[in-house]
């Protein structure tokens, strides 16, 4: 059919209206994820005590970790009050619920610390349903001793047993001593900043965090783990 001048103009008008009605970027602009930090650690020692850690991250000269950005509305705290399970069925100190209860003022209150038994252990947060995850922040024990934890591995899956479809967000097990595959991330000094880890919208219901002792002893402590993202 031959298009008349009027029908061409009508079609162009309709096209213009349709383009103007649709937002150019449906996900919106990226904004930093807000992570609330506890008070800084109180260390009687000096950072020189940890020089024997070969895979330690380079100094940030006192600068904070870079902020993690996510689309607007994707930086909500998802993990508060969520159920926590662990490889350690009988923790040495504290309760598994400490991991997600929102209390993380370790420099002011030692009763916020969960301590798991020695060697490789994990804790696992159940977000209740599959979520779009944009960041995870871990606080192991950061006060009153300077610590660096070994084999810190953070994974996301819809499988509570982490046998299938596992996404690894962070892995600083450089020598594969945890036998989950060697990772390329650095070991780091625990501070009140925790360790913010970008997740880039990975989807999953469960977040599992491994560790394998630290420079002081073979135990594994957690003050808090926070998962940020988007809930439906
Ligand atoms: Ca290792």
Please, could you describe this protein's structure?
This protein has one helix and eleven strands, in the order αβββββββββββ. It is mainly beta and 232 residues long. The protein has one domain: Galactose-binding domain-like (Jelly Rolls). Strands 3, 4, 6, 7, 8, 9 and 11 form a seven-stranded antiparallel beta sheet that branches. A two-stranded antiparallel sheet has the order 1-2. The radius of gyration is 22 Å and the shape is globular. The chain starts with a helix and ends with a strand. It binds calcium ion. Calcium ion binds next to loops.
Summarize the structure.
The protein is mainly beta and 232 residues long. It has one helix spanning 5-21; strands spanning 30-32, 69-71, 76-77, 83-86, 114-116, 121-139, 153-157, 167-171, 195-211, 220-222, 224-230.
Shape annotation: globular
- Which runs of at least 5 residues are low in confidence (pLDDT < 50)? 6-26
Oligomer: single chain
Note the total helix count: 1
CATH structural architecture: Sandwich
H/E element order: HEEEEEEEEEEE
Gyration radius over CA? 22 Å
Tell me which ligands are bound. Answer: calcium ion
CATH fold topology: Jelly Rolls
